[in-house]
Amino acid sequence: MSHETSALTINRVSKQFSTPEGGVVRALDNVSLEVAEGSFTVLLGPSGCGKTTLLRCIAGLEAADSGEISLRGQRIDDVPVWKRRVNTVFQSYALFPHLTVAQNIAFGLQMDGLSKTQIAPRVEEALAMVRLDGLGGRRPSQLSGGQQQRVALARALAKEPEVLLLDEPLSALDLKLRRGMQSELKRLQRETSLTFVLVTHDQEEAMAMADTVAVFDAGRIAQVGEPRDVYLRPRTRFVADFIGEANVLPAEVMDAGVRVGSIGDVGLDVISGIDGQPPGTRGHVAFRPENINWERTPNGDAHVLDVTFVGGDLHIVAEVGEDTITIRASSHHEEPPRTGDHLDLSFPAGSVRWVED
Ligand code: ADP
Ligand code: MG
């Protein structure tokens, strides 16, 4: 399992659609992405940002307007769908209702011209991988939603693709099942060492599964990286806001620090990602609710508007001048802030991040 070679290379791919109203939608705008061999890569973004369009271009279900797509270094743009060593698992499981589970899995292998003796063990193996041993004789209607999703997965895995594409595969499942399937998918990916490219709009799901996450913003990739890195070092305002919770405030670079909204001047030691921005530059900064030091003082600038208990955390909404920010503190704190309190705020070194618009 090497992460050095590229399983899939997307190079400057663009795709636009005409709308029935006579307009044009840029579903993909010059998208480039390297997907490492054996990685679990997640494409994350809100609905309508182009995720499915990119998967469809990779699978060959859609032709890009421009750009190149390569699988293990070979251009596949002109390779027909059925010859691409790529398989897709869709949100709708798309199983054949009149075929048994085993027949559903075998179907694609028969189309590929494999013999019965070749197919039988592959079907067994795929069923075992998704933990459906013994259920090969059932019809899809005799299975739960989660089990049907596993059949769809087994069917794709049995084809031994070079890259497995998964388009919101868990979104039809309820929360508890979804959590279980997230770790199942993680396990499957580890055990098979296959390259998985999964699409989701759910940032928690992305963070739980990805070793690499690519954040989409309106047809473009805003940032690619390890989940932790993207969380700690969001490059843009959109990424900071979309992943986890963030306070985003207008900011201006001053001679000795940065003026942050109504909070005032913050020293350069506290700001990260600001390299080379000259005084006078205006933009935004982002900081995480859990990364704020607070102290109760009668003349503190932050005025507590609301405090709610959320499990082990206190969510504190406070007003600072014209800005409203969220602070997270531990519920175990001996004297937690209360509504009406005044707080003095300070920030740990590097915790306030300069973000692009
Ligand atoms: P996502 O999967 O991130 O929700 P999509 O890739 O499905 O987003 O869609 C991206 C944009 O392209 C959306 O604005 C969508 O309405 C538009 N779009 C997708 N497919 C078509 C199509 N066949 N015709 C017209 N517009 C489309
Ligand atoms: Mg989609």
Structure description:
It is a single chain. With 357 residues, the protein is an alpha+beta fold. Helices cover 24% and strands 36% of the residues. It has helices spanning 51-59, 101-111, 116-129, 145-158, 175-192, 203-209, 227-232, 237-242; strands spanning 6-18, 24-36, 40-44, 66-71, 74-75, 86-89, 163-167, 195-200, 212-217, 220-225, 247-253, 257-260, 264-267, 271-272, 282-287, 293-296, 302-310, 313-320, 323-330, 342-346, 352-355. Strands 6-7-8-3-9-10 form a 6-stranded mixed β-sheet, with helices on both faces. Strands 13-12-11-15-21-14 form a 6-stranded mixed β-sheet. The protein has a 5-stranded antiparallel β-sheet with strand order 16-20-17-18-19, with no helix packed on it. The chain binds adenosine-5'-diphosphate and magnesium ion.
Which sequence of SSEs, written as H and E, runs from N to C? EEEHEEEHHHEHEHEEHHEEEEEEEEEEE
Radius of gyration: 24 Å
Strand order of the largest sheet: 6-7-8-3-9-10
- The number of domains: 2
What structural class do you assign from the helix and strand content?
A: alpha+beta
CATH T-level fold name of the largest domain: Rossmann fold
Largest sheet: 6 strands, mixed
User: Which CATH class of the largest domain is shown?
Assistant: Alpha Beta
Bound molecules: adenosine-5'-diphosphate, magnesium ion
What distance lies between the first and last C-alpha atoms, to the nearest angstrom?
Answer: 37 Å
Number of strands: 21
Roughly how much helix do the residues carry, as a percent range? Answer: 10-25%
Inertia-based shape: elongated
